[in-house]
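Troubleshooting: if your tokenizer reports a length mismatch, compare your output against this known-good record of 477 residues.
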Amino acid sequence: MDELSSRRCYVVLGICCMSLLMVGMDSTIVNVALPSIKVDLHASVSGLQWAVAAYVVTLASVLVLAGSAADRLGRRRVFQAGLVVFSAASLACSLAPGLGWLIGFRMVQAVGGSMLTPVAMSIITNVFPNARERARAIGVWGGVSGLSLGIGPVLGGFLTEAFNWRAIFLVNVPIGVAAIALAAIYIPESKAAHPRRIDPLGQVLLIAVLGLATFTIIDAPEQGWMSARTLASFGAVAMLLAGLIFCERRRFEPLIELRLFRSGPFSGATAIAVLSFAAYSGFIFVLTLYLQEVRGLSPLRAGLILLPTAVITLFASPLSGRMVGTYGPRPSLLIACPLMTAGALSMLGIGSHSSYPHVVISVLLFGCGFTFTNAPITNTAVSGLPRAQAGVAAALASTSRQVGSALGVAVVGSLINPVHGGTVATAIAKYGDAVWLTVAGMGAAMIVVAFASTSRRAILSSRRAAEVLLVDEQVAV
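Known-good structure output:
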């Protein structure tokens, strides 16, 4: 691929950010609309969990396949196909006649989304060959990622109150159509010199592991955590995971490149992605239910409570990107993790009569901390690795985010599921503190991982892993 002008590179970055805005918003925009969906489609708490989790589980399951397919078939081609599928599925979601249909269309929507996020990151990596410029571009990318997650609940609240919950999906259609047209004009086609082979067995096992794990956690409150069904399901998850690792270690070009995890920074970035997105998704899922079910706020007012997070993202994300480009990932992570932990702990004791400034400050602390995680996760995932495998590396980072989101909603949602009678409001009042302590525990774990993954020993392991991958890539060619 010939080098592009600086202006065109940033136009390409803008188009890729448009796709990220859609995919990121869709991970959170539905949260504020959950009470409306609950009433309109007669959904239970577990049904609401699936309305969120079905999207992120499917997204996590096929992201790596989409990244490697883009390396093989052409990144622009797969990117455009993803825009078409995502936009069409968004329209279908807005017309869903029942909860089952909505969950099904959300899964199709996620298949389209899987062709966007990792492929867009791969496109950015290839059009910005200079390391410093690439770090700045990734900083912008991280900012848009944080902004999309922050603005989702606000926009979702406005659209739900002004129209109804179906409007939250229709908003994707004009953005998708514009991105399709611009991609055809400005994004150059590119492929990997040696694209990875398809790994059907690994793909099936990954879908089975993520799907069954999420189902088991959501189903456990009804069946009982120590019931035979729940224990058997967890046992099956463990066996499937062991089978996945066994198969992937023996493939020359596996779906999940396990050798990447020899790199301390890459492994740390993956763990932090899972923990941070689990904490964020769980926090937002319960918070939006608390604001509407316990405090009786409208969708718009509930969304406005989350507005400070979107505003601070505009300032904190670029700052985090510059910090990562200049000082590496550790400073950003050591800001992010304590803030997320403090924000979750400050929610302890929140009830039906707590002051709104208290809630807003807690949300602000947590949201600011979360914003500082995106740039170090993304930059660490692709830096120092062979450029030809950028799609797979970016896909693994994105997969980790979505795995975290699915697990966060499943775990935290299971704590407030009123399966033995009562309402969501009474369940939150009774078990709310358990939710905030769980989220705070995830933040504390991130602090430990941040120190371990940015040590001198971890950095040396990253260099060794990159050398092994580069040698194997040259041998394969």
